[in-house]
């Protein structure tokens, strides 16, 4: 080995050692200092995807919350998306939106699906606090999986969409920000955008609909999660806007099934109008012949939802 080669190797060793010793908050700051903002994203691109799992945190009920990582195989870095699962706040986990997560990752997005505390373990606002923590945690960890967080966004489904709306509108709420992240105490939970499928944008109207339909399981799910009961109004995105609360208004995408008898289309249309009237951007899309969880089954409307989501994300990354 000549002296020049040895010198170059020594420099590289020092650089690697310095990066390994870098505090998480510093690493995050450097990661977001992207010269051009975010890496290029082509929604029509195709990548193979590697899937792995890591521990997120242990919740107050003693359950280890996990995160499922969908990492495109490529040069990167890749824009990052946090997926928040549905399940009426009472069930499901990080696997709930696997087909959508894989489709988004295959287009060149690092997708991380996170478990959240379920209502039988703890009522509102526990799952929103989990989501808030997951955003901050992901901002410090995404580079591990070749992700870029300059314009970190959320994908949320049904009750996960409700969590996404609250998280996006209230990123610094002390109740939601209650779980400390020791590795990076100064990192906040702000996000750049939120894309949602069938979000519960009006919690009380949806509860009234469950009563009209005599849906006892849904009625119970609401009462377990909204405890005390007044929190169904305090955490209602529609009512938050109507009360004129000072909130953060990031671009929203709402994809709604026209045949949804769980979250009615008129509820979403009203929320979209109210969000725009408050000064926010809301891309509202109605999917014909589609029920509440239409994206769970293969079909043309599921394919359309994936393309709509990717196109929306591409617009936000270019903005």
Summarize the structure.
Helices cover 39% and strands 18% of the residues.
Low-confidence stretches: 1-36
- CATH superfamily membership: Alpha/Beta hydrolase fold, catalytic domain
The number of strands is 8
What is the third-level CATH name, the topology? Rossmann fold
What overall form do the CA principal axes indicate? Answer: globular
Give a short account of the largest sheet: 8 strands, mixed
| Element order: H for helix, E for strand | HHEEEHEHEHEHHHHEHEH
End-to-end Cα distance: 49 Å
CATH class: Alpha Beta
Instruction: Using the CA coordinates, give the radius of gyration.
Output: 20 Å
Structural class: alpha/beta
How many helices? The count is 11
Strand neighbour order, sheet with most strands: 1-2-4-3-5-6-7-8
Instruction: Return the average pLDDT rounded to an integer.
Output: 91
Strand residues, percent: 15-25%
**CATH architectural arrangement:** 3-Layer(aba) Sandwich
Number of separate domains? 1
Helix percent band? 25-40%
Characterization of this structure:
The longest helix has 19 residues, at 300-318. This protein has helices at residues 3-20, 24-32, 98-106, 126-141, 159-169, 203-212, 216-225, 231-234, 237-242, 265-277, 300-318, and strands spanning 49-58, 64-72, 78-84, 110-114, 147-157, 193-197, 252-257, 282-287. Helix content is 39%, strand content 18%. The chain has one domain: Alpha/Beta hydrolase fold, catalytic domain (Rossmann fold), CATH 3.40.50.1820. The protein is built from eleven helices and eight strands. An eight-stranded mixed β-sheet has the order 1-2-4-3-5-6-7-8, sandwiched between helices.
